[in-house]
Amino acid sequence: MLFVFGKRAKQMRLNKVSELIHNSTNHQNLSSAAVSVHFQEIVDLDDGNYEAVPGSDFVIKRVAFRDNSSKYYINDRSSNFTEVTKKLKEKGVDLDNNRFLILQGEVEQISLMKPKAQGPHDEGFLEYLEDIIGTNKYVEKIDEASKDLEALNDKRSGVVQMVKLAEKERDGLENVKNEAENYMLKELSHLKWQEKASKLAFEDTSTKMVEVETNISTLEESLKSDRGKIQESNKTLKELETVHNKYMKRHEEIIDLGEVEQISLMKPKAQGPHDEGFLEYLEDIIGTNKCELNDDLKTRKDKFREFERQDVKYREDLKHRKQKIKKLDDKLEKDSSKINDLTKECEESTNLIPQLEDKVPKLQNLLSLEEKVLEDIKERSKGCSLPPLPDEK
């Protein structure tokens, strides 16, 4: 193999390459000697067997001649040392250290190796095997990966600590969350009851408004009727005053013009019990008229006082009814304002209920998302591992 891979005669414990040509009694004066090495790429299987890669096989051959010259062939095609060396190195054959085989002189040297190198420039049995196997190229990457692993472990410790703090904070907020949810539910229930109360108050106030308007209409009709009665009383009083004035005027004209002559013929005083003189005549007229007038005057004064009492009563009633109407108007205005406020409050409560109902699932979803993020952080911290090395793919 050393011959095929281009080693010189001295490296194979020979003086000349031509010494490799066979020489015996039956085979004398042979002109050349050739060695062929067959290569093929394989894939190792899990069961310990292997599988050949189709089209990957090739043959390298070297021929030595009597004149100590040699030729190289790749798949029976003439080649040279440079091309052969390049192809072998491309296939992973270590021609610099000859790690593809152990020479006889190296056995004792290997047996004296320490298990592991003591310094950066030493080589122990572990480093020797890694060099043969080809895993020494991973040493630097393993060191870097170890540093990355240490950094990731530190980072993981920080993340775990953060997760624990987050869990502690989450557990501490659990009661606050429950209180907030209960408060939101109670607030929602309160608003619903407040809406119902506002509707009932609105209906009750509307009923009272109808009653107030009915009472106002009744009072206005009663006031109108009382005013009519007062006007009629005033009219009757004026008529009585007119009649009284006429009667008094007529009373002043006691003596009628038709009776003047008869009166003028009367004797000053009656001569007998059945006679009537001027004096008896006057006494009769004055007494009779005086009684009638006194009776009539008394009656009319009584009626007048009655009218005055009724007038005072009607005026007081009118005053009270006006005050009552004013109070009812004020109450109507306050009730109208209260109805407007209740209507506005009812509308605001009605509009606020859907908003609060919409917030409840949003808050619950937000809490679920936060818990999911926390679980993801915990899972990532548990599954923290190194990324695969490029040459291990």
Automatic annotation (TrEMBL):
Residues 135-186, 315-359 form a coiled coil. The keyword Thylakoid does not apply. GO terms for biological process: mitotic chromosome condensation. It comes from the Eukaryota. One of its GO terms (cellular component) is condensin complex. It comes from Linum tenue. One of its GO terms (molecular function) is ATP binding. Keywords: ATP-binding, Coiled coil, Nucleotide-binding, Nucleus. InterPro entries: P-loop_NTPase (IPR027417). This is Structural maintenance of chromosomes protein 4.
